[in-house]
Specification:
The chain is mainly α and 435 residues long. It is built from 17 helices and no strands.
Length: 435
């Protein structure tokens, strides 16, 4: 085994183990949430996941951005098939091991090059939208700092990776033409042929150097990208599939009731139950949600799945009318708090308590600006549900802090006293018909 193979195997194992370690941390953090059963109606869930995550059906509601995102998505999936060949070559010291496929191999390499060019065009377009056209939703307050850098970084990274792939093929083609040792596989190069004038004056040794540098850069870049996923917004590449599978498939606008409250109301309305009898029901640990541990694991997975595209915020009527609410910021705040709690647990163990909560970063003004219209949920390309988090935080404010706005407290008092939100007793409710 050559030194190159040994280095490759060590690099491959090192990056893979690092990814597994970091991804297990993400899963641990998600599992800090409450348990909730979303395993019903599996056939419908598979359809939703296939249509929304695999088929990108909600992305095309904005056709140009949706089409270009589809190019990157397809390019990312298909071009990475070549990574399989690179890994095999790296471990066994071969060169283009899949060339035994003959003319089909030449065809797929050519197809990869076309996809790489399309990915390049899409990435340049997205960089232009963000930084030159300055689409407003990419420049809102919550996108300043790392979120903006993160978005640009990944696009630049993909452009560099695609250039390395095409330059590798260009130098390989020249080495084949020179009958260089180990370079004897011909393939279609519809795009990389235009890179050849840049390097066709180089001697054979320099061409081999360029081809090897690009080869190593390409595989190390992909392995580094794999680990970059778990510290960036791009975790949606992995989590979009479980996120859509476990998404809410109930009718729009149907809110999840708290079982403890539902049971209590049923008992109040059942004439056969003694209201003064002792109850065996355990009191809930908390009404609503104050911190990330009070949210469900699906809501926490939503937070990690958010790619900060801002479609939810741009469709939010509260945000459009100048209110403070941004559903995207809600998801980013939940993820940031979850990361903070996760790091605290890593440091101090399960007893970690920093006396902070989600309400330190999400204000009451944001929460009460929500009209619960579901526009954010409908707009999300992967069915993230910011509304459910807003509702749970509101429940905590109302049921544990009695911190609802004055208008709502008046309504609550009327419902409690009169059985209706109006300031009339039940006996006077039909007086209007006598006027």
């Amino acid at each position: 085994m050559g030194i190159g193979q040994v280095i490759f195997i060590l690099v491959f194992i090192g990056f893979t183990l690092l990814f597994i370690k970091n991804f297990r941390r993400i899963l641990r953090n998600i599992n800090l949430g409450r348990d909730v059963d979303r395993t019903n109606n599996s056939s419908e869930r598979w359809k939703v996941m296939t249509r929304v995550a695999l088929g990108q059906s909600k992305m095309v509601s904005r056709p140009i951005a949706g089409f270009l995102h589809l190019l990157i998505y397809v390019g990312f999936v298909i071009i990475n098939i070549e990574v399989i060949e690179i890994i095999i070559d790296g471990i066994f010291g071969t060169h283009r091991v899949l060339s035994f496929l003959g003319p089909f191999y030449a065809f797929i390499i050519g197809a990869f090059e076309i996809l790489a060019a399309l990915v390049l065009i899409a990435c340049v377009f997205f960089l232009t939208r963000r930084n030159i056209m300055r689409i407003p939703r990419f420049w809102s307050k919550e996108m300043q700092g790392w979120p903006k850098t993160d978005a640009n970084l990944i696009l630049v990274f993909e452009i560099v990776l695609m250039f390395a792939f095409l330059l590798m093929n260009a130098s390989d083609s020249l080495l084949v033409a020179m009958n260089s040792v180990h370079y004897n596989v011909e393939f279609a190069n519809p795009i990389s042929q235009y890179f050849i004038p840049l390097i066709d004056n180089l001697p054979e040794s320099s061409l081999i150097f360029v081809e090897r540098i690009c080869w190593w850069f390409h595989i190390i870049g992909i392995l580094a990208f794999l680990n970059y996923l778990v510290i960036s917004k791009h975790l949606h590449i992995i989590l979009a599939f479980p996120n859509t599978y476990y998404s809410n498939i109930e009718a729009d606008g149907k809110l999840a009731n708290m079982d403890s409250v539902t049971n209590e109301v049923k008992k109040m309305l059942d004439p056969n139950i003694d209201p003064f009898a002792a109850s065996d029901d355990a009191a809930p640990e908390r009404f609503g949600a104050k911190d990330v541990q009070d949210l469900s694991w699906i809501q926490l997975m939503n937070a990690y799945s958010c790619t900060e595209c801002g479609r939810c915020t741009s469709e939010c009527p509260a945000n459009q009318t100048g209110k403070l609410l941004s559903p995207r910021k809600i998801m980013m705040d939940v993820r940031d708090r979850l990361e903070e709690v996760g790091k605290g647990i890593d440091k101090d163990g399960e007893t970690f308590n920093d006396n902070k909560s989600l309400l330190d970063s999400i204000t009451k003004e944001e929460l009460w600006a929500c009209t619960s219209c579901n526009a954010c949920v409908n707009a999300c390309p992967i069915n993230i549900d910011p509304l459910s988090i807003i509702i749970d935080l509101r429940r905590y404010l109302v049921m544990e802090e009695s911190a609802a706005p004055m208008e709502l407290n008046t309504i609550f008092t009327n419902i409690e006293n009169n059985g209706a939100p109006w300031q009339f007793s039940m006996s006077d409710r039909l007086n209007w018909k006598d006027e």
